[in-house]
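Our platform keeps sequence and structure together, in a single record for each protein. Because each token names a local backbone shape, the row as a whole describes the fold. One such record is reproduced below, unchanged from the form in which we store it:
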Amino acid sequence: MPVDARPRFFSLLRQAVTDASFVKLTLGKPRGADPALQNLFVRPVGLKAGPHLAFVWRHDTRDVTKNHPPESALALIEGLVGGDFLDAHLFTTNASAQLECQPDGSARLREKRHAPTAAGPGGNDRAKIRTIPADSPWLRALGVVNERGQPREGMADKFRQIQNFAELLGHLIAETPLPEGRPLNVVDMGSGKGYLTFAVSALLGDRAKVRGIESRPELVDLCNRVALDTGCSARLTFTSGSIVSVDVPEIDILIALHACDTATDDALAKGIAGRAALLVVSPCCQKELRAQLAAPPVLADALRHGIFQERQAEFVTDALRAQLLEWAGYRTKVFEFISTEHTAKNLMIAGIKNREPGDARSAERLREFAAFYGIHTQSLASQLGLDLRK
């Protein structure tokens, strides 16, 4: 094994971070103390504090995202490679490199060069490789980017959200057993102006028929017009209606981002009834349970403060939803899908269908959780026919 494999790999990584050619880094083959840890994904992000590297720690049932300044990030990565992870795969705009470590400390490096991506405006900066191309016609038509593929004023956070969501959804789809031999049926409940609905369609291409459901007819008309004008209408349509009223008998992937209060529960219930293989929701405005929550005596003093009551309601609501998905036969993950630098509404719950519903032990734990917080009813539980009372 080449003696210089490890130093060479970290030299390539440092150079890529320094000259902005770094696209992403994947660490695999974990052997650390945490048996639930599967992979670590690292990518560049731009924050108000300056350039950082975002670490997404992928576990069996949850993802943890942390941002680090470049120098501390590089030091952390160097300690992880060969220790907690035996495999490291680096992607830059003009090359890739894979470092394969052995338990005895030896390592092998494989490098591959490819044609560099086109230079950015001005010819000096290498353009980043993105899940969704920045010059996509629908991004321009929806007002996210200008003719040069740069985010318009006030749309930088939305652009990052679109990119991050597409990347995360790509990872989730790769983990999900999905039907083959036919287009996937994808439904976005509460699609709004369609930013992320278009992103899903762009990500999956001809592999899927994507349908956005939106209650505001003017937004439905806008999105259908943009889909037609940008050549997406054969695989992407928008329908006017509510989450409760719409008829969606066949669902492979259900998405509901920022559906307010119990609308998230309505969307999840639709997806479960349609036996969706993948559910992806980002809850918002969790109000339903606040009136029911009875603080255990040990928490009473802390929960005299309204902000803590609000955060407790958010936690209890979404924790209960995750447990209900487990009971309904889904392997569940809960994680941040974009930094709080860009949006406060950043929690995502994903469920991957992996068994039949109705596990008795899961139901018992659900009822214990509900009893602890004084919950008697909850929208998703009611729609699934599960009585939360002990």
About this structure: Confidence is low (pLDDT under 50) at residues 117-129, 339-344. The CA atoms of residues 324 and 381 lie 7 Å apart.
